[in-house]
Amino acid sequence: LCATAARIGSAESWRDRIEAVRVNGLASMTGATRERWFSPEFAARNPAAVDAILGRFAATDAEGYAGCCAALARADFRDALGDISNPVLAVAGADDAVCPPADLATIADTVQDGALCVLPGRHIMNVESATAFDDALIAFLLQD
């Protein structure tokens, strides 16, 4: 599980986001999204990659995105974490303000067989720390 939480945000914050997307479109959110998803250093070194990802984000269907936000507004899996018995690798970006390492630590500590991996970067740490992410994922998948 990467850059996630058993409960992300609040119903009110998701309703506000739905309204903003419907009124202004996703393109209006790319500046704030850039700051949440990527460190300034990574964005400065990799502008083409960041712009490509944000371009795909901005091109997302607004109603589809609003539907995802509505689902997240209702989603709360905190009480179910302890029921998860399969191995779980919870991967966090060290500087992710959206789903901070503490959220992933809660997952790793609450599932029956969890491990936490914190990598440099923000919300899209699998791009920002691609090699370390790949190494952690491969090691997890190859464990006995």
Describe the structure in your own words.
The chain is mainly alpha-helical. It has a two-stranded parallel sheet. Strand 1, helix 6 and strand 2 form a beta-alpha-beta unit. Helix 1 packs antiparallel against helix 5. The mean pLDDT is 97.
What topology does this entry show?
Layout: H1 11-24, H2 30-37, H3 40-45, H4 47-58, H5 62-74, E1 88-93, H6 101-110, E2 114-119, H7 125-128, H8 130-142
Parallel strand pairs: 1-2
Helix pairs in contact: 1-5
What is this entry, summarized?
This protein has helices at residues 11-24, 30-37, 40-45, 47-58, 62-74, 101-110, 125-128, 130-142; strands spanning 88-93, 114-119.
User: Which regions contain 5 or more consecutive residues with pLDDT less than 50?
Assistant: none
Strand content: 5-15%
Q: How do the strands of the widest beta sheet line up side by side?
A: 1-2
How many DSSP E strands?
2
Give the topology string: H per helix, E per strand. Answer: HHHHHEHEHH
Termini distance? 19 Å
Protein traits:
144 residues, single chain, 2 domains, two-stranded parallel sheet, 8 helices, mainly alpha
